[in-house]
Amino acid sequence: MQNLRQMTVFMNVVESGSITKAAEKLDVSKSVISQSLKQLENELETTLLKRTTRRQALTPSGEQFYKHCCDMHRLAEKAWEEIKTQQTVPKGKIRITAPNALMASLVVPALLDVFSEYRDVELDLVNDDHQLDLMENNIDLAIRAGQSAPSNYKQRRIGEFRDVLCCAKAFSGDFRSTPYIVHQWQQRPVEHVLENRVTRESLCLQYTRVIEQMPCKPPWR
């Protein structure tokens, strides 16, 4: 970083024509400019500027170094403008993860609505029912269902949904004989008390309340 500052000072001295004018442009004292030039020439072990009381001239090494300083300045301005532009116009790759059940049905349609007009945005979607480590997997945004583990990441609730267990009208089994229904994203097993609701259109079982894990082990273990 110190080298970049010295290169900036040197470029301004050359373009301003004198140490005095460069100091005025950079809003520093002449001694600061002189000290920076002296340190730069000492580190490069060469003379960059021949200076008298009335004029200054570049040495061959100074001309070559000045060209590199100009290239550095142009690259710095380009980098600055590109990043500033990205803040107003989305650009680049965004890596997003979501559970399999939500990705195709909810996440992808929503992303298409938002990013369809931004052609410079590349979406990298990761289907996974596990709560992946964001840093380890280089993930920018995680959409999760259920409770998230405590963390320092910014979190926002974006919606809610209700699970409904449905079956065909021809099914004749006893639903109450299956006490446990668990999703992969749940932190621990829960027991759902089901109520059988029959309509002309369909036969479905809806969750009426949720009971915390019972002392007995669930049947799948």
In short:
This protein is an alpha/beta fold and 221 residues long. The chain has 3 domains: 87 residues, Arc Repressor Mutant, subunit A; 73 residues, 3-Layer(aba) Sandwich (D-Maltodextrin-Binding Protein, domain 2), CATH 3.40.190.10; 55 residues, no CATH class. The protein is built from 5 helices and 8 strands.
Would you give an account of this structure?
- The structure is a single chain.
- With 221 residues, the protein is of the alpha/beta class.
- It has three domains: 1-87, Winged helix-like DNA-binding domain superfamily/Winged helix DNA-binding domain (Arc Repressor Mutant, subunit A), CATH 1.10.10.10; 89-161, Periplasmic binding protein-like II (D-Maltodextrin-Binding Protein, domain 2), CATH 3.40.190; 162-216, no CATH class.
- Helices cover 38% and strands 19% of the residues.
- The chain is built from five helices and eight strands.
- The strands form three sheets. The protein has a three-stranded parallel sheet. The protein has a three-stranded antiparallel sheet with strand order 6-8-7, with no helix packed on it.
- A hairpin with a 4-residue loop joins strand 1 and strand 2.
- The radius of gyration is 33 Å and the shape is rod-shaped.
Key phrases:
single chain; 221 residues; alpha/beta; Arc Repressor Mutant, subunit A; D-Maltodextrin-Binding Protein, domain 2; 3 domains; 3-stranded parallel beta sheet; 3-stranded antiparallel beta sheet; disordered C terminus; LysR_subst-bd; sequence-specific DNA binding; DNA-binding transcription factor activity; transcription regulation
